[in-house]
Design brief:
- This protein is 77% helix and 0% strand.
- By secondary structure, the protein is mainly alpha-helical.
- The protein is globular and about 60 Å long.
- The two termini are 18 Å apart.
């Protein structure tokens, strides 16, 4: 679980002032993105439009912060910056839940179920899956995160195969309605779900922030962290549980968004030139929210909802993933 040597800060290259400036710039970009989204081309009832847009901004901020911080944690415990929590199978599990439920209840009947009940059910299944992986693999392999990730990849492939099988059994007309549910959407976020999700993510972020110095030690590798008095196995288990919360809550709230955390975290590493979590955590969190809000603003105002922000992010994230893989091969 040793950290990527090229990714760690080197002597003479890290300057706290640089990281502070980067965080400030990202913060300004976030404020500009929020201002543009809230005020550009307002039509109709001002109060209604502002309320609707404010709800979307809160949802996008919550999702961007959660997924980006989860990716930073995942990079720390895995020692590899090209991996994402999606490898654990959360996205595939979300699709499987939706597909199986649509098959059992009927797509339209499933979508008529109280959104709060659906949210709690989806969150419970994804959290249960994460805790099962942590319990079974981390406990029996002494914190071997690599084996845990391999298990996640296998589970992800199995979930996708099952989803495809069940999808073939669904009526084609109902499957069209289901497909719309499988992509992240900020158009109809329930306010009560938003409040509950905000509380869950906020509590997780408090724990993450309190762990920031232990995470710095873990990024140095198992031996170095142990010599500094850090219980690496316990820290890893807690970090993976936090990853589960920070991924499961946004996914259950709006749907799956692939590669957002990969994009924002690696951009932050490049800009700050450090893996110190007191800088990368806030920078990645704000960057994730900024990217989502900016992408949604461009799509709504200039592309007239002809696509979704999650699809655009997945496209550019996939390109970034390929670039990172090629860079790793050249090392």
């Amino acid at each position: 679980m040793s950290a990527d040597v090229d990714a760690l800060p080197r002597a003479g290259t890290f300057r706290p002032s640089r990281s502070i400036v980067v965080n400030a710039i990202i913060g300004v970009c976030f404020l500009l993105a929020v201002t543009a989204f809230m005020t550009y081309d307002l039509k109709g009832s001002l109060s209604f439009a502002l309320e609707l847009r404010a709800k979307k901004v809160v949802a996008m901020t919550l999702v961007g912060v959660g997924l980006s911080v989860a990716t930073v944690l995942f990079h720390t415990v895995s020692g590899n910056r090209i991996l994402t929590p999606a490898l654990m199978g959360f996205d595939a599990l979300y699709i499987l839940i939706q597909t199986v439920a649509a098959y059992l209840f009927g797509t339209f009947a499933f979508l008529r179920i109280d959104v709060r009940i659906r949210f709690v059910g989806e969150l419970a299944v994804m959290m249960g899956f994460a805790l099962l992986l942590n319990h079974v693999f981390l406990r029996r392999t002494r914190g071997d995160v690599v084996l845990l990730m391999l298990a996640g990849v296998v589970m992800s492939g199995m979930f996708r195969a099952l989803s495809n099988l069940v999808a073939r059994l669904i009526d084609p007309n109902e499957f069209v309605a289901l497909q719309d549910r499988l992509f992240a959407s900020f158009s109809s976020v329930d306010e009560q779900l938003l409040l509950a999700s905000t509380v869950c993510v906020a509590l997780a972020l408090v724990v993450v922030w309190r762990m920031r110095y232990r995470l710095d030690a873990v990024a140095l590798g198992h031996e170095h962290a142990t010599s500094l008095g850090v219980d690496v196995d316990r820290t890893t288990k807690v970090a993976m549980a936090l990853v589960a919360v920070l991924v499961a809550v946004p996914t259950a709230l709006v749907g799956a968004i692939t590669f957002l955390g990969l994009l924002t975290s690696n951009a932050v590493y490049l800009a700050t030139r450090t893996f110190r979590h007191r800088y990368t955590i806030p920078a990645s969190a704000i960057a994730g929210a900024t990217v989502l809000i900016g992408a949604q603003f461009v799509i709504e105002e200039f592309f007239e909802f002809n696509t979704r922000a999650s699809m655009v992010i997945a496209f550019f994230g996939g390109i970034a993933f390929i670039v990172l893989l090629l860079k790793e091969q050249r090392r």
